[in-house]
Amino acid sequence: LSTGEVLKNLNKFYKRKEIQRLGADNGLDARLFHQAFISFRKYIMESSSVSADLHIILNDICCGAGKVCLLGHVDDLFPFFLRHAKQIFPMLDCMDDLRKISDLRLPPNWYPDARAIQRKIIFHAGPTNSGKTYHAIQRFLSAKSGIYCGPLKLLAHEIFQKSNDANVPCDLVTGEERVYANEDARQAPHIACTIEMCSTNTPYEVAVIDEIQMIRDPARGWAWTRALLGLCAQEIHVCGEAAAIDLVTELMYTTGEEVEVRNYERLTPLTVLDYALESLDNLQPGDCIVCFSKNDIYSVSRQIEARGLECAVIYGSLPPGTKLEQAKKFNDPNDPCKILVATDAIGMGLNLCIRRIIFNSILKPTINEKGEKEIDTITTSQALQIAGRAGRYGSSFKQGEVTTMHHDDLVQLKEILNEPVRPVKAAGLHPTAEQIEMFAYHLPDATLSNLIDIFVSLSQVDGLYFVCNIDDFKFLADMIQHIPLNLRSRYVFCTAPLNRKEPFVCTTLLKFARQFSRNEPLTFDWLCRHTKWPLAVPKNIKELVHLEAVHDVFDLYLWLSYRFMDMFPDAVLVRDIQKKLDDIIQAGVCNITKLIRASQSAAAPGAAEVVSQDFPLSRTKRDTRAVSERYGARSTEALSIAVGVPGDRRAKNLKAYRAATRQEDLKSHGHGSLANRLLREGLLTQEMLRQLESEWQDQHRNGRYSLGSKRDDQNSSKEMGKKKK
User: Fold this and answer.
1) What CATH code is assigned to 270-418?
2) Fewer Cβ neighbours under 10 Å: the N or C end of the chain?
């Protein structure tokens, strides 16, 4: 057979619409059809021999091509193609069963206990600081039994404390912790928990679901859907943005339950100022600067303390205890710390006495539906959530104010705040362990990552739902695939809450899984050796970041200890050293400015590693270089803003970068030499200055100039020429 003729006819077979339709009828969607054809073509073209019946068909097709009376037709290849496809995609033989398992069109039917009772749904709708959650909690406290479901450990802990302070026995349940109100470890009638930990089997009189708008979250939305549809409570009190009212009403319509809506207005006025801060010299007590990257947090806090002001620092990866201590420090009227620098972590979970919110930038890294990181302006919902923290009801500030660091951002912020909040369109879903186990029964040789892929590709959802992003799950599944674990244990390890961008935490999970597979308990001594406990107070930012990672490792151990108690037996001891580590991290954060200086004076690679905590190192270097070449790296603050938002393609954001750089240049003009300004702000030491001077003199003596120097000289010559003309 002529390989050229065979290849031409195979490609003709692939392009025929009739063949594609036949493939779809047999369970091959466009993606699977393409993959199956590539494999089928490779099998035919690279095999030294094929089966006799396939050879005859190919011969008839090639010999009959172009003749009036055809010996064969390319469509005759379909039975052989389908047989090959079933070999590489075994699920094609049991496609009907798999489609039934992955049918997600009726989630309310997954919770028969909740469907057996008639629940009353009350939606408390309103902006931040409107008292909506307060009213729901009052009903929770007055009930004979109740459950509070919140998005954060801090919120669950706050309700746990409030309940017990009000003489209402309440237990605390999070992924890593169980705290009983009763000394004999008897379960209390009230429970405060993180939303993933709520029970859909226990009956309650009242349930409170906080921050219901997070039902659209691409990663965690499934937990709100599960709580809303599955909680067995006579009354379900839902708290959140009014944007979620329509979706909740539609979801409850499918369960035959009505929704009562109670609207709330903000309790204190919030004013958007007509002027930007422009300079950190204009800071006042009660101000909170909001940044969207850890790099900006470091930069801004250093510049504030360089002005002789003390500031508290709060960002997402800090332990809860450290966040509370920093909040307490900022709120204390007798503490000299009157400025707060924070990420959007302050948007919920912390009670703060903020007078004015200042957005350092309105650009924020986000994760899109494909799991890719993008840079975009903050949404109206995010802006309102953060701005609403100013002027909290009951605090010393009776009115809240909001502005931006730069004037260009202020115009855009006003537009964002004036836009209506986009309605929540769909609720998240996630495949359960039981569904994956049923898939594995039909596909025993498939990996967990492949099972998840097949499940998502076959899943059917109606317009009210979407399948949550599973990239983190697949990442962990691929990472531990080579370790021999049963499917249920493997699934649990893959649902562990960790940041996959922290290498130390990921390698620790790998070691946990490996030792677990050997049936060797992970003891306290083993964990201390692995983390090199005891640890010292950090001397620079790199060490502080490592301590945060170690804290996450302790969290991971505690999380696994509640799922595999016999294999992770030392939860009590680990919790004790985690509290000590929290104190060590607090000491580091209190001296964060000194840590930043130490990091900068040590070595440039250390600084690069700090930046890479938020963004990949290669990307950070590329973006830093691009910003330096385009706008000039004359301002550390402007550069840090640019580095904090890599990959930005939008013209208005580039305009903001340029404006920030120009403003810094204008401010620095006339305030002494550049060297003096860098020394004054702590960006340069005398030793570094002497070293730079020595290197510059060596270059001049050797006649070597950098490209930048030549370019500057050429630009200067051109300018002189223009002036002469």
Assistant:
1) 3.40.50.300
2) C
Per-residue pLDDT reduced to its tens digit, 551-610: 999 999 999 999 999 999 999 999 999 999 999 999 998 888 778 777 766 644 444 444
Residue 439 has, within 13 A of its CA and on its CB side, a CA count of: 28
Radius of gyration from C-alpha coordinates of the chain: 30
Mean pLDDT of the chain, nearest integer: 83
Mean local confidence (pLDDT), 159-187:
93
What is the pTM (predicted TM-score) of this model?
A: 0.76
Rounded Cα distance between 540 and 680, Å, is: 20
Report the range of poorest mean pLDDT among 274-283, 580-589, 665-674, 682-691: 665-674
Give the DSSP per-residue string, 233-278: EEEEEEEE-GGGHHHHHHHHHHHT--EEEEE---SS-EEE-SS---
For residue 534, say if its preceding peptide bond is cis, omega within 30 degrees of 0.
yes
Q: Got the DSSP string for 651-675?
A: HHHHHHHHHHHHHHHHHHTTSS-HH
- The yes-or-no answer to whether 119-263 and 270-418 have a common fold is yes
DSSP H stretches of helix in 93-183: 95-101, 112-115, 132-142, 153-165
Q: What distance in Å separates the CA atoms of residue 550 and residue 380, rounded to the nearest whole number?
A: 35
Residue 172: helix, strand or coil by DSSP? strand
Q: Could you say which architecture CATH assigns to the domain 471-599? A: Up-down Bundle (1.20)
pLDDT given at position 521? 96
Angle in degrees, CA 310, 314, 316, rounded to 5: 160
How many helices and strands in the chain, by DSSP H and E?
31, 18
- The model's pLDDT over 616-630, given as tens digits with 9 standing for 90+, comes to 333 333 333 333 333
Q: Which two tokens stand for residue 724?
A: 């002469």
- For 349-394, the pLDDT digits (tens) are 788 999 999 999 998 887 665 656 678 899 999 999 999 999 988 8
Q: What residue ranges do the domains of the chain occupy?
A: 3-88, 119-263, 270-418, 471-599
CATH 1.10.1740.140 is the classification of domain 3-88: yes
Q: What is the 3-state secondary structure (H, E, C) of 13-43?
A: HHHCHHHHHHHHHCCCCHHHHHHHHHHHHHH
| 348 closest CA partner among 312, 382, 393, 398 | 382
User: Could you write out the DSSP letters of every residue in 513-530?
Assistant: HHHHHTT----HHHHHHH
The confidence band for 314, taking pLDDT boundaries of 50, 70 and 90, is: very high
pLDDT at 687: 64
The token pair at 303 is 């510049």
Give me 461's structure tokens: 């959802």
CATH topology of domain 119-263: Rossmann fold (3.40.50)
pLDDT band at 611 (very low <50, low <70, confident <90, very high): very low
pLDDT at 151 over 90: yes
What is the per-residue DSSP string for 595-640?
HHHHHHHH-HHHHHHHHTTTS-HHHHHHHHHHHHHHH-S--HHHHH
Find, among 48, 76, 72, 46, the residue nearest to 61 by Cα. Answer: 72
- How far apart CA 401 and CA 271 sit, in angstroms, is 5
In 3D space, the residue among 482, 485, 537, 476 whose CA is nearest the CA of residue 507 turns out to be 476
For the residues 514-528, what does the mean pLDDT come to? 96
